[in-house]
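ARCHIVE CARD
Drawer: 12
Card no.: 0347
Subject: one protein chain, sequence and derived structure
Cross-reference: see card 0346
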Amino acid sequence: MNSAIRVNFIVEGQTEETFVRRILAESLAQCGVYVGGARCVETGRKPRKGLNIRKPGKQETIFRGGMPSYEKIKRDIHRWLDEDSKAYLTTMFDLYELSYDFPNYEAALKTQDPYLKIKILKDALKSEISNSRFVPYIQLHEFEGLLFSDVGVIDKVLKPYNEGSSLEELRRIREQFKTPEEINDGKETAPSKRILHLFKSYQKVTNGYQIAQEIGIDVIRNECPHFNEWQVNLGRLAIYR
């Protein structure tokens, strides 16, 4: 019988945090893996003074969201591994605009194969963190790539807020690539930029989660092999614990 385990998630932004809490949590629970917590990567701390019955005196305000330097990412990963020593920890960061000081970043840039690029970065991160409870994941190329798993849903959700359907344009984009994950990461051709070009009102935090929820995790896993591999690996934690 699978033994239940907990996995914490450090993610890039609020959209990914909502996606983990409301979509991945339900899916992973079915195989005995429970989301212990999900939070955006810590970007900084600022000392503050205030009175608190339980914690009087000097305290800190913690800032989260976005992708800071690698050193801050590394510090945040180690901090949570130390804070919760009984849980696994995974990440959900976008390859798109990943910090240039990420380990093996230059080596990864030299390959044209997007999946090999991710493997180089993931292996380097795992080696740097060096903790058996750490399961690194970097999204190819960004969260919106997952949404191209079903372009009909993108169009259905966004067209009421725009000037009409862009389904044919979405289909043409999708047909250019073997998988949604391979939609490239150029400044104007990243998945999010392509959606914004067709639907000016697209809001990542609200619309992104809504589209992903309507597509469903099974369709996303079927269309996105790298994402599916991550989910398989997390599910196996309960089996081989």
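Annotation on reverse: Residues 144-214 form one domain. The chain has two domains: 5-142+216-239, 144-214.
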